[in-house]
Amino acid sequence: MRAMQLAVPGELLQLITRYTGTPEAGQILVRVSACGVCRTDLHIVDGELPALGQPVIPGHEIVGRVAAIGVDVEDFQIDQRIGIPWLGWTCGRCDYCTTGRENLCDDAKFTGYQLDGGYAEYVIADSRYCFAMPDGYSDAEAAPLLCAGLIGYRALGMAGDARRLGIYGFGAAAHIVAQVAKFQGRRIYAFTRPGDLEAQQFARELGADWAGDSTATPPAPLDAAILFAPVGSLVPAALRATAKGGTVVCAGIHMSDIPSFPYEILWGERRIVSVANLTRRDATEFLALAPTVPVITTIETFPLARANEALARLREGRITGAAVLQLA
After folding, report:
1. Most buried of 18, 74, 110, 132 (most Cβ within 10 A)?
2. Can you spell out the DSSP letters for 5-28?
3. pLDDT tens per residue across span 129-173
């Protein structure tokens, strides 16, 4: 199979040819049709997450079809369309796993990081962490649901019943969660990079009640804010924009350092929480909800060999919606 492999963080991915592999017990081999390009992939490629000391194939928003099945797999059939997300394996035995918090498992393995991912023609996955995909989406349209959608959905849950919701960083995850939030009857306040009028207009088209620079003060105090932008200085900015009793949700796996801030902007029972990965329950709930909203994904597709270009465009903020590698 062909794959785009990261040999050393900070370098470009290389197009390689390697053995496809055979699924072991509990695993399935999936022929990849599409794979979303996520900001977490950028963190891995740019060396902002701990390096693994070995080459890796990135990609964890994978949509494809089952090509082979290992023993002890009963939930899937050959040629069934499935999705593979970021959380790719957990121990199943620790306190976190046995109390519905598998996203916090200390021994977890992640697709496109500890496990080879979807920037490839085939991928082997643990069948426990694969999901049937909803109808009504092409493979490329469905790919962003598997991380941008799932992490956004989990972050929205942590925001509680906030009526006035701020979203900082209007990229792939934000453009999905905004649609869910509007479906739930919330008011949306979108914050973008200063001067990014195109992203602000995109937010308005998706139903945002207000859109402006991340340095701006919204027209009304927020009940909660979700930060998708990995910029630590936005945490105190969001606290200042949030009313007493409100929540600031940090939804990324990586963020630059949060600067010190006066206690008075946290006081008043405001709180800061983080989102870590996802659970299988998140996946089943959100994948059932998405076609009901219906969530419409805005995508820009690239062939596998242009993965570096897609990553560069994402890094520079030049993707509207989500970038997706299309293989079939």
Report:
1. 110
2. EBSSTTS--EEEE-------TTEE
3. 999 999 999 999 999 999 999 999 999 999 999 999 999 999 999
